Amino acid sequence: MAKVAIVGATGKVGQYAALSISRIPYVNEIQLYGRPGSDGVLEGIARDLIDSFAATGTDTRVSWSCSIEDLQGSDIIIFTAGSPRQAHQTRNDLALGNAHIVKDFAEKINAIAPESLLLMITNPVDIMTHVALKYSGKKPNEVFGIGTHLDSMRLKSAIASFFKVHVSEVHTRIIGEHGESMVPLWSATTVGGIQISNLPSFANVPIDEIMTQVKCSGQRIIASKGATVWGPGEAIGTLVRTILGNENRILTVSAYIRAEVHNIGDVCIGVPARINRTGVYPVPIRIEPPEVTNFRISVEKIRTITKEVFDALDNGE
């Protein structure tokens, strides 16, 4: 049984993630952590969750705290704290401000919870994952981000809709930035086990329209209802279940890569990774030349912004 902590639990994503995680049988404690002064809100969230457990028969303990020391003993710490994205902003607009928050937390957490895995949700998630990795001192397999996991699910749903099949019949991935330069891997996409390019109707797939839909999905949801909540919350739950169940599933998350994708690396970015109880392990892959080119562009974009953020943090800016 495991303890899962949510940092930034007063936010909408943190709250829904707690509900999603409560359904996982390997979890016996969920800890809600918030900034000093948020005790009352945290208590309210906890009591609301406990009421829902009475209806579902869930036997999970819920605790809350504003003291970072109480994160001790956590198996997984989910970091959702930071400034949320507004409809007019890109994820990268949040980079330096949220990096300060992540750095401060990361510098403290390894001494408090050295055995924990750290799952980053805060945007821009690829850069925040690298900030958390650098300043926490944890191993690369112990720090990862939600990355393009949800983007991949959005693409999967769109493809299933086009071909009028159940989503379980579609396998696909998006790698690269969780953002504008994301790269769909059509070369690794199958429908019913058949390579998508071998389906005659593939010629009619509105690829540009689908990718615009995937890239703009979060922004459209934010503009409509103020925040993306259920998609990220369920994606977080899937990752937690995969870890605690020691499932060794391959999911597309933001992880530190060295040379796993055509010798492109030294950055945290969305890639397929094997995930189990000890963390995430990027899977070496080979993709088509146009995909390599686009992935390299995405990596250079994230690497450049990451370096700018690191320089600013190290210079006290």
Write up this protein:
With 317 residues, the chain is of the alpha/beta class. The model has no long low-confidence stretch (mean pLDDT 94). The longest helix has 26 residues, at 289-314. β10 (190-191) and β11 form a beta hairpin. The protein is built from eight helices and 14 strands. The protein folds into two domains: 2-145, Rossmann fold (3-Layer(aba) Sandwich); 149-308, Alpha-Beta Complex (L-2-Hydroxyisocaproate Dehydrogenase, Chain A, domain 2), CATH 3.90.110. The protein is globular.
Based on the model shown, name its key terms.
globular; L-2-Hydroxyisocaproate Dehydrogenase, Chain A, domain 2; alpha/beta; 317 residues; 14 strands; Rossmann fold; 3-stranded antiparallel sheet
Strands, helices and their partners?
Blueprint: E1 2-7, H1 12-21, E2 27-33, H2 39-56, E3 61-65, E4 76-79, H3 95-112, E5 117-120, H4 125-136, E6 143-145, H5 149-163, E7 170-171, E8 174-175, E9 183-184, E10 190-191, E11 194-195, H6 207-225, H7 230-244, E12 249-257, E13 267-276, E14 279-282, H8 289-314
Parallel strand pairs: 1-2, 1-4, 2-3, 4-5, 5-6
Antiparallel strand pairs: 7-10, 8-9, 10-11, 12-13, 13-14
Helical amount = 40-55%
Strand content range:
15-25%
Number of domains: 2
Q: Determine the mean pLDDT.
A: 94
- Estimated structural class: alpha/beta
Q: Write the CATH homologous superfamily of the largest domain.
A: Lactate dehydrogenase/glycoside hydrolase, family 4, C-terminal
The end-to-end distance, rounded to whole angstroms, is 42 Å
Radius of gyration (CA) equals: 19 Å
Strand order of the largest sheet: 3-2-1-4-5-6
The shape is: globular
* SSE pattern: EHEHEEHEHEHEEEEEHHEEEH
